């Protein structure tokens, strides 16, 4: 969409569908800079609800390729996090920034405190921090956290989708549970 210059005309109509709320709403409004028509109108038993499958429509709509290149991801990140903000926190002359993303419930890192302490003792010139995004901060704060790290260690799960906000040369280490298929 950015390549086509359609940034001011972006929009999503959720009429007759479940409204977009929370994190997804922040992503669409704040990061993608799109408008949302969020009217709650549930379809009746005789109403036809059209949900297009964009993958099947791909030959007809090749321009629908949001986030198909690193430049798209950088543009999305820059809508939330400035390059100046990132430069203040990481880069040449700054301490190594190591972040650990944990969860409060399922698939959490059982020894997260020992991991953080061990990293801090082993890599004394690093800043090690642990973050929980389960019911957490607004999207912009999450994007800033991810964008300002050099190394990120995270338990496997949907939260790793925030890696869309990382910068070049950031290392993301995703931990999988035992016997994961």
Write a brief caption for the model.
The protein is α/β, with parallel strands linked by helices and 181 residues long. 25% of the residues lie in helices and 17% in strands.
Give an overview in words.
This protein is of the alpha/beta class. It folds into two domains: 7-66, no CATH class; 83-175, Rossmann fold (3-Layer(aba) Sandwich). The protein is built from five helices and six strands, in the order βαβααβαβαββ. A four-stranded parallel β-sheet has the order 4-3-5-6, covered by helices on one side. A two-stranded parallel sheet has the order 1-2. α1 (22-31) links the parallel β1 (11-13) and β2 (35-37). 17% of the residues are buried. Residues 1-8 and 52-64 have low confidence and may be disordered.
Keywords:
single chain, 181 residues, alpha/beta, Rossmann fold, 2 domains, four-stranded parallel beta sheet, two-stranded parallel sheet, 5 helices, 25% helix, 17% strand, disordered N terminus
Number of helices: 5
What share of residues is helical?
Answer: 25-40%
CATH class of the largest domain: Alpha Beta
Q: How far apart are the termini?
A: 36 Å
Q: What proportion strand?
A: 15-25%
Question: Under the CATH scheme, which architecture of the largest domain would be assigned?
Answer: 3-Layer(aba) Sandwich
- Give start-end ranges of low-pLDDT stretches: 1-8, 52-64
Residue-averaged pLDDT: 78
